[in-house]
Structures are given as structure tokens and as C-alpha cells.
Design brief:
This protein has 334 residues and is α+β, with helices and mostly antiparallel strands. Helices cover 57% and strands 13% of the residues. The protein is built from 10 helices and 7 strands. This is histidine kinase.
Length: 334
């Protein structure tokens, strides 16, 4: 800050220096003026100016130092009151700009909330004809056509479900209900939802649960499993998907293993990035790059860690490690 202060006052300091040099020059040129007393006076002037600058530095930079330390939030209490007319101009400009940003932020938030509510309402409205469509598809006599339509119906349903939960994720901490959740009914429900797709691809499930219950939120856990199982089915063919639960280092661990295409090692660090589709996903054309991203977003508030391991051409293993009971003390509002 002192360097900035000197830079700000350099014109005044240069003027004082030039005046002292002029006094010395006049005393040097005019023999009638004794040079030594003049040098003494100039030295006193320089010392006095330095002392004045030193004393004024603390007062004149107090406001700007508080402004520099301000974290640029809407709270201006950290910025001290201005002590000069120029500082008052800066302070008033900051207040005016902050008030404008507050108004714009509030308006944008209300607009986003309105759009979110409209979208959620639309998704709920669309679910009604989708349910009716599912019943109509199930009554079709042509099994081949039924499987094809059910697959497309499932894709639409899955995308709507992703969109619905994506809008809810920012507020999911207000919606958490942590309890002991039985894994078997949750898994069975998600597997049944994929039944027609799995039958058409010749995919089965091998479920072995050594640990039958986990401490988590059942609704959000079901969403995570839905994304992982959908990916496992999407990139597998004529094989079994293995689902295992157990205990490791005091944590419950759930693994989902498929024998599908696998993930390129170069893609593994990025599979949870929003919108990222691997090279295989681009070839498939159906990948959205949102499933694993949303899974990670949901896992963080639930304190569930996700680990992926994969060998291209052999399959992938996704491991969910659930927290201990005491870990949930970190979740506010529980």
C-alpha cells in the first residue's frame, strides 16, 4: 500500500523536490546568498516533508486499506467511513453499485425460481401422459414393437427424471431424511424399471448383499443407483451386472460391476465433469454427459464417496462408500 501511496503523491513530491533544487540553484548562482545556511534550510524542509508524508500516510490510506480488505460482498460494514470528500465520492459510488447489484441479483433469483417452478410443474404434468403411454405400450400384441417403444419410452422417462432432480439438487440439503435404508427393495425397484431394456439386450443381474442396510436418504440413493444402473445397462450386452455390498474399514461399500465397453483411462478423471461424454459415448450418440455428474452432485451432501475403475473392453466397477453414522453430524439440519 505504501508504494501505491507514493505513486499517488508522486506529483506533489516531485514539485517539492524541484522547489528545493531551485532554492539550492539560486543560492549557488547568487554569491550574495550564503550556500551553507540554504542547504541547512533545504535539509530541514526535506525532513519536515518526509515526516508529514509519514504521518499522513496512515490517515489517508485507512479508508482504502479497508476497501482493499473488503471481501466484495453486499455487506459494507467492513469498509470504514470516508474521511475526505474524494473518499466520500468513492464510498457513495460503491454503495450505489452494491445496491444495484442487490436489486439485479434479487430479480434474477426470482426469475430463476419462477423458471424452475414452471419446469418442475411441466415435468410433473408430462409424467401423466407418459404413464398412460406405458400402459398402452404394454398392451401391444407385437413384442418387437413393444420392446422398441418401451426402450424409447424409458429414455424419455430417464431424461425427464434427470432434469427433475437436477433442478432439485441445489436445495437437496433441505430435503434430506437420513435413516436406515434397506438396499434390496431400492435395488429391486430400479432393476424392475429397466426390465424391458435388459430383456431386449440379454442382461441379467446378480445381487449379493452382505450388508442389507445403509444410513442415507432413500430417495436420493435411488436416484444415484438409477444413474449407475442405467449406464451399466446402456454400455453392456448379453452379460450379468454384479451388485455386491460389504463392509470395509467400518464403512458399508456397494459395488456395481458390468462387463461392458469399459472406460478409456484418459477419460476416467473427467467422467464426473458436467457434459463430458467419453470417446465411446460420442460414438454411441445417446450419451448426455449428465448422469455421473448428477450422481457426484448428489453424493457430496450424502457424504458418499464414488470410485470408478475400468478396463476398456472388459467393463467398469463403480464403488459407493457410505459414511459412518457419526459423519452425518456434519450435515446441517438433520
Amino acid at each position: 500500500m505504501i508504494r501505491k501511496y507514493i505513486t499517488e503523491k508522486r506529483s506533489w513530491l516531485l514539485l517539492l523536490a524541484v522547489l528545493q533544487l531551485i532554492i539550492i540553484f539560486v543560492a549557488y548562482v547568487d554569491a550574495a546568498i550564503p550556500l551553507l545556511p540554504v542547504l541547512y534550510i533545504v535539509l530541514l524542509n526535506v525532513l519536515l516533508c518526509l515526516a508529514f508524508v509519514f504521518l499522513r500516510y496512515s490517515k489517508e490510506t485507512r479508508f482504502y486499506r479497508s476497501l482493499e480488505a473488503w471481501d466484495q460482498t453486499y455487506d459494507l460494514h467492513a469498509v470504514i467511513e470516508p474521511g475526505s470528500p474524494l473518499e466520500r465520492i468513492v464510498h457513495e459510488a460503491v454503495i450505489a453499485q452494491t445496491d444495484r447489484y442487490k436489486r439485479e441479483s434479487s430479480a434474477n433469483y426470482q426469475l430463476l425460481e419462477s423458471e424452475k417452478d414452471e419446469l418442475l410443474s411441466w415435468i410433473h404434468e408430462v409424467k401423466t401422459p407418459l404413464t398412460a403411454m406405458q400402459l398402452m405400450i404394454e398392451r401391444l400384441p407385437d413384442e418387437t414393437l413393444q420392446r422398441q417403444l418401451m426402450y424409447e419410452w424409458l429414455r424419455i422417462h430417464h431424461l425427464l427424471d434427470q432434469q427433475l432432480h437436477q433442478k432439485r439438487i441445489p436445495f437437496m440439503r433441505n430435503d434430506l431424511f437420513i435413516e436406515n435404508v434397506s438396499l434390496e427393495p431400492v435395488l429391486n425397484k430400479e432393476i424392475r424399471a429397466l426390465k424391458s431394456w435388459c430383456i431386449s439386450k440379454g442382461i441379467g443381474f446378480d445381487v449379493e448383499l452382505e450388508v442389507e442396510e445403509v444410513l442415507t436418504d432413500g430417495k436420493w440413493l435411488a436416484f444415484m443407483l438409477r444413474q449407475l444402473l442405467t449406464n451399466a445397462v446402456k454400455y453392456s450386452a448379453a452379460s450379468d451386472i454384479l451388485i455386491r455390498s460389504g463392509e470395509k474399514d467400518g464403512h458399508t461399500v456397494l459395488t456395481i460391476e458390468d462387463s461392458g465397453q469399459g472406460i478409456d483411462p484418459r477419460d476416467l478423471p473427467r467422467i464426473y465433469d458436467k457434459g463430458f461424454t467419453s470417446s465411446r459415448g460420442r460414438q454411441d450418440g445417446a450419451a448426455t454427459g449428465m448422469g455421473l455428474y448428477l450422481t457426484r452432485q448428489v453424493a457430496e451432501p450424502l457424504l458418499i464417496s464414488i470410485h470408478a475403475a475400468s478396463v476398456p473392453g472388459e467393463g467398469s466397477i463403480f464403488t459407493l462408500t457410505f459414511p459412518r453414522e457419526n459423519d452425518f453430524q456434519r450435515i446441517t439440519g438433520m
